[in-house]
């Protein structure tokens, strides 16, 4: 790794620590007194991860793959763009 990549990774790590701190404060405010259950902590972390994922820009090359003129029509879909979020598979059994 070069110095620039190390610097960027350190910067990202600090920003993620700040985001985690804010997420904890929000959760504490919403929950009130008491210790959160493990599932509540994981759920809050998952929500922050989804927000981050939505903020990451799509590279121009990927954006071109999903333009209406270049992508083949898909039956049952009004747009050739992928859905914003994917449904979780249902548990079997």
Structure in words:
- The chain is mainly α.
- It has 3 helices and no strands.
- Helix content is 57%, strand content 0%.
- It has helices at 3-31, 38-55, 60-65.
- The model has no long low-confidence stretch (mean pLDDT 75).
- Helix 1 packs across helix 2 (38-55).
Q: What's the helix-strand series?
A: HHH
Largest sheet: none
Q: What are the low-pLDDT stretches, counting only 5+ consecutive residues below 50?
A: none
* Average of per-residue pLDDT values: 75
Round the Cα radius of gyration to an integer and report it: 19 Å
Instruction: Quickly give the structural class.
Output: mainly alpha
Number of E strands: 0
> Count the helices. How many?
3
How far apart are the first and last residues' alpha carbons, in Å?
47 Å
Q: Helix coverage percent of residues? A: 55-70%
The shape, in one word, is: flat
% residues in beta strands? under 5%
In short, what is this structure?
This protein has three helices and no strands. It is mainly alpha-helical.
Record the SSE blueprint.
Layout lengths: L2 H29 L6 H18 L4 H6 L28
Key attributes of the depicted protein:
93 residues; mainly alpha; 3 helices; 57% helix; 0% strand
């Amino acid at each position: 790794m070069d110095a620039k990549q190390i610097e960027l990774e350190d910067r990202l790590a600090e920003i993620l620590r700040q985001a985690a701190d804010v997420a904890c404060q929000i959760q504490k405010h919403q929950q009130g007194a008491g210790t959160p259950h493990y599932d509540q902590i994981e759920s809050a972390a998952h929500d922050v991860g989804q927000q981050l994922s939505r903020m990451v820009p799509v590279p121009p090359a990927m954006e071109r793959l999903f333009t209406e003129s270049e992508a083949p029509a898909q039956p049952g879909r009004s747009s050739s763009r992928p859905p914003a979020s994917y449904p979780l598979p249902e548990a079997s059994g």
